[in-house]
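INFO  loader      accepted 1 record
INFO  loader      residues=620
INFO  predictor   begin
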Amino acid sequence: MTKLDAISILNEADFRSIFIFVIQWKPTPPRHVATMNEELRLLKEMVAKVVKIASSSDSKLDMKRELEDARGTYTLKSRRMKLLAKRATAVPNIDDDLRCTRKLKSRTQLKKGPCPARPAPDATQNTRQIMMWTLALQRLALVCALGARVAAAACVPSSATSVPEYPVEENAFATDGLVESPAEAVTLRITPNELPDGYDASYACPYEDEDLLAWEDASTWTSGVVPANGEDVELPANTRVLLSGCSVTEGIIFGIITIPASSELVFADHDIVLNAQGIRVQGKLTLGAESCRLHSQINITLYGEKPATLPADPAYKGIAAIDGGTISVHGSIFHPTWSRLAATAAAGDSQLYLQHRVNWQPGQLLLVTGTELKDSRDWHRNEVRTITAVERSGNFARITLSLPLEYTHFGGVEYQGEVGLLSRNIVIQGDEASEPTDTENDVCAYSQFGTYPCEDKWLTGYGGHTMAAGEGSTIQMEGVQLYRMGQTNVLARYPWHVHLVGEGGHRSYLKHSSVYHSFFRCASVHGTNSTLIQDTVGYDVIGHCFYIAEDGVEENTTVAYNLGAHVHFLGFPQTSSNQYMDTLESNENLTQPADVTASPFYITRAYHRIIGNAASGGYA
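INFO  predictor   done
INFO  writer      dumping tokens
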């Protein structure tokens, strides 16, 4: 290690860079004392640098303890070195205390009293110190790089401007024999993003504004106290509050968070976990912008038991924009959000060939739709798998799966099964208690032709919901996964919902997103015109998925390039002949009779734009 090397590393404000450099450097044998003194000084400076970085970035770590652990852990091989380590530097006075290495009175006891400043007496002791400090720095930098780095750097906004890329091998496989164009009449739109007509995008990152007040700063709050676990929270009037990775911890569950009409809650581009009973948005809830998407992992979990009186307060177990409020959420864009098989995937295969060059990521979940016979709760062939690798050749992609397929999925010239991406980096979800509790005896025998789910089961799912209600309210979501959302058989409590917004619907949209394991619908448009629902995947959904609309007066909605799959009906199972009668079958369990024949798309008026969608399962 040269002085130039050390100076270069000391200028790096990055734990991982320091660690990688030091872990590759090995102490040299004893040599000239002056040279070793310089080497030792540089090592100590690097330790001081690591501590300074962590201490100046609001780290929750006890850096003094970490340094002491670092010195102790790696000096156990030599009792003498262990004793020397105990007398080495204590944070924060590193430069002074480092001179506190002293001669041993014996092999088991150090002299007491003040420690005189003096250089190391010989090359042997210098070598030991160099070894000790190298090991200490390695451990400390490793802790920071792999663990503390997250806490220490949590308040530093991400510099990413697009979906984080990973190495993709191009031209990795032969494309001979693959289905190049689908047999269906419509094809997928490849353009990754478009702005709705009349919508002005923000060209700055909201979380970089200078007038933001930190959530974790007590002076931000009228009470002078940072909100605590279990409390309802109301932002001060006329304020813009920044929620960062330093603001909340996973164990805290707030009550209902209220954003007044004159205030705004802005999320930083950090890994954030926010737990609450709900968010009432009368002002603005902002997660990124069209031109400044958030690429960190953000999880918002909505908590709450099913109340006796339904529907509950819109903000209860929901994110509700009311009285002119705005919800604006913009995550990473993965495109296309779904594709079709370019070749049949047989049972036992662990690779899929897709018709598009997707930018999906290893670690994400995908859906492979069933292509056989039937799609219901008691019998279907849909499969969810984790991506482990993505390769591309020409216009195609090859996806490697974490587990082999259980069933065959057809991808011939006649038709091809769909493959949809479920994962997103921003997740809005209901808590684990959202799951239905009436799933026992989930199959009942009603017919000589087979078995069907019981009509009085699967009715208690009570997940989260999001909505914009009333004229002037807006809900914009893209790059979002809505998971365990929707409240079974409860009107107006859906994963995504525009409710009586009127002619202001052109400001609201749902794009590039997924609705996964929903207890009631995917997206609903009610009393609102000119809304956009596009490039969204809905899977494992109770009731009609894309529901356009509740009253039948809605107009000019664009429903484009969406995939709906594995949709579950409510009530007594219907046959095709039931639907030719004047009155559909219904019962007291249904708030919407049409859900007895739930389908991926439910559209009641002709004046809409319906483009390039795909339906699989339900009454499709």
